[in-house]
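Section: Multi-chain targets

For targets with more than one molecule, the full set of components is provided together so that the structure can be written out for the assembly as a whole rather than chain by chain. Components appear in the order listed by the source. The example entry contains three components.
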Amino acid sequence: MSQSTYVTGADGALWEIVIGLEVHCELRTETKLFCGCRNAFGEEPNTNVCPVCLGLPGSLPVLNRQAVEYAIRIGTALHCQVQRSIFHRKNYFYPDMPKDFQISQYDIPLNADGWLELPSAKRVGIVRAHMEEDTGKTTHLGGGGRIHGAAHSLVDYNRAGVPLVEIVSAPDLRGAEEARDYVDELRAILVATGASDGKMEEGSLRVDCNVSVRRQGDTELGTRCEIKNLNSLRSLGRAIAYESARQVEVIEAGGKVAQQTRGWDEADGRTHSMRSKEEAYDYRYFPEPDLVTLDPGEEWVQNVRSSLAVMPAERRRRVAEAAGAPVSSEPVATVVRLDLDGLVVAAVAAQVDAALALRRLANEVAGQLAETGPTDMGPDAFVRLVKMEQDGELTSAQARTVLKVLVSEGGDPKAIASGLGFEAMAAGALSGVVDDVVAANPKEWERYAGGDDKLTGFFIGKIKAATGGNADLRAATELLRQRRG
Amino acid sequence: MSAEARTTPATALAADVRAGRRSAVEVLEEHLARIATTEGDVHAFNLVTEAHARAQAAAVDGAVSEGRDPGPLAGVPVALKDLICTRGVPTTCSSRILEGWTPPYDATVVTRLAAAGAVFVGKTNMDEFAMGSSTEHSAFGPTRNPHDLSRVPGGSSGGSAAAVAAGYAPVSLGSDTGGSIRQPAALCGVVGAKPTYGLVSRYGLVAFASSLDQIGPFTTTVADAALVLDVIGGHDPRDSTSLPDTAREKAASRLGRGVEGLRVGVISELAGAQGIATDVAARVRHAADALAGAGAKVEEVSVTSVVYGLSAYYMIAPAEASSNLARYDGVRYGLRVPGEDITDMYIATRSAGFGPEVKRRIMLGTYALSAGYYDAYYGKAQKVRTLIIQDFEEAYRSYDVLLSPTSPTTAFELGAKTSDPLTMYLNDVCTIPSNLAGHPAVSVPFGTGDDGLPVGVQVLAPALGEPVMFQVAEVLEAAVAGAPGGAK
Amino acid sequence: MARLARLSLTDDELHQYTSQLAGVLEHAADIEALDIEGVPPTAHPFPLVNVLRDDVVAASLDRAEVLGQAPDVDQDRFRIPRILGEAP
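Its structure, encoded as tokens over all components, is:
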């Protein structure tokens, strides 16, 4: 149980933080959802627009097949029911929406009732993953670029009509950390399906967060607030921390949490109510008469299912099994997250020590990649190196050194090792070092030879120092023991 | 003004132009001259595009002189209802809110007509956003009936109907959501057809009620209507509701076959119903007799749910319209009335830009869709639609086509019905069921009423039944022409 | 309702519309008498499914032409008065 799962109230009581997330994912299609305009980020304003995505009078939408394909992939990867669906119009006036309604799926989403497995092995329910069109982009002038206080605004419709899938989780998440894990996991899944580039910084993934609190042990859900404008995982975590504390404060002061939409303000670190009070929204949903029923059917869904890449949770399961590690363990999550699990699988195939491979990848390689970025190290080279270490051709320290070179420069582990002079440290040489160390420390040796095992560490330390860390310490220990008789 | 000013049918004009017997320019000038003479009284057009038309006509003549076939509508002047988008030519929907807007694209029907050699003479007046049955709800003033200038031409495509009746063009296009082609056709004494939903692309048709709207022709003859439909019809990948071309027969494919052996059902709920004028009802009986005389088996048939059509329509159409017309908000095109903030601007723009009938329907539609009323109104109306379709299907098991009045009355005086919307809405009682079912129907002029004004008879057919529909309509047309005093 | 539709009505209009709409709704009450339990709704006259387009880029409009139609333009964008609240 992580500390951030709870808020501690004024009286010391614990309040559980309950989170559900709505993630909007832009699909990586060539064109928009309902027209042939390019789906591209960062272009000159109002250049990727046509009668359809500008909502010009007389224009009509026609659904993009590839967008549906991606949406089905997402639904399948999230273990959803992929079903016959119809598009609805969600009616409200807003200047970033050219038709003043948004075409979206309403009561029958394309994908419903799925789940996602976190690295912790916890399953999070997916309520739905439906298709809809994106809005244009509004820039506020004056008032520091914020909507409040701006003198006027400017609208660019390049993004209007870009295909989105909105993925709505059940309120199964507890606390900020788990919410971040969920977004990470979802992003990995979306990228794996090929449907998304996963770029949060370009708005390809946008997260809205429903937060409520309840006293520890309560089973009823509290009143939730929806938080918008979360542009990074960091904002998500901060916003949850702030908002859950705010709600506890409200309740403890005898108040009630009002169900509302709140915006996260990165600068002042607070959420604030977003709507003027008079405005009640009534979206007047009704079936979009310009589109026909979408019925993917068994065959399409089957084809998608059979061609889908292996998802992270399954990869973790495979690595865990291969390395004999718990599926929810940190190293397993790490190698999959960094796309290194193929190397563990290669180790298994080559019948070398998979647990050792996992350890090297999750510790040394992961650490190095965090600093240097991706590596060209191939599975063959990696497997040979693990085998050298496993067979005692290299000490673990030597192996780590070779691995570091291998990760940054690639090449052949044997060649790297010999280039570093590590081959010389074979059994004979080590034996000589042990002799020297024993001779130099007669008192200690007497005690060790007399059965005082506590001195093993002393000798190993000396041997390590004498060899500059390049000794196979297991072999050295064995030599010491043999010498004692 | 009399209806004698009628133009030569499109089929004959196009044949002459294709054969080089007449030039397209000459044909055009003849029609422009007629427009110049009486348009000041009729006001069929929002815009006459003379220069554009002359260039098109010259191009048609050029093609003929080079030995190329300009197409089946070679040199035929065509007027377009002012809600069909024309690239570079203003399209107003007879609304202030679209003033100054020039579409950057052509509607599919415009592209198809142009490719068939048609020459566009102008954009016709209409009830604002096609909401109305008299063309009095135009921001640019009413159109008058060429048969009697004190009367309305019907609506909403009143300008298109009047343009053909006045001989300004042998062909015009209108749109029909609840009768907006057939009712004005009846009141102006011309042929007006609403095709099967999905037969003609709606791409570039400014939407009123998307699930009901269809573009169709006004012509002086049944054969012309079939010809035009065969030009503008057919699958369009830009319209998701466009029907596939498979199994579709040409609309003109059954012309000239007579009605011997066909089964015709006269819809009892509409033929003699309350509100149908006795002279109109009498003309429908004459039409039934004429078909029986030509060898058809004619019987009365009950299609019980059609009486609920009007109520269902006035839930569905305004609901869809309230959403379709949301985009007129002063941000991207058309009228903007400044406001303090965006909401003020929206309200100021829309309140100034829309006329009273449009506002009324937006209000009605907003209500019908709003939370708490959806099931009672829009949802229920969609179920009534199912009933109407089922009842029609049942009737078409026994009959090839159905017959009814088009409009309950002949053309009424300007101003007679503007103060009471419900009375105005009742004009559409006979035409609405076809829109709700998505079926085709055509209004054929069939003589005149007691006031000497044209009466239209409606021939209804099942989905994609245009060939048999025109087959029957043509026999009615011949019966009127052949009968001495058939105009009475 | 008028605010939802972004319309402002004068008192006269409001009064007139209210009674007219009441009339239309009263007329629509005939539907109430119908037994339509279990009748499926028709959103489309024809049950087309899966009308889809290939993901192929088509030409967009010329920006000058698009912005030329706009009531107000600034920095190649549509300029609008200030917005009082975030999108819902």
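The longest strand of chain A covers residues 14-26.
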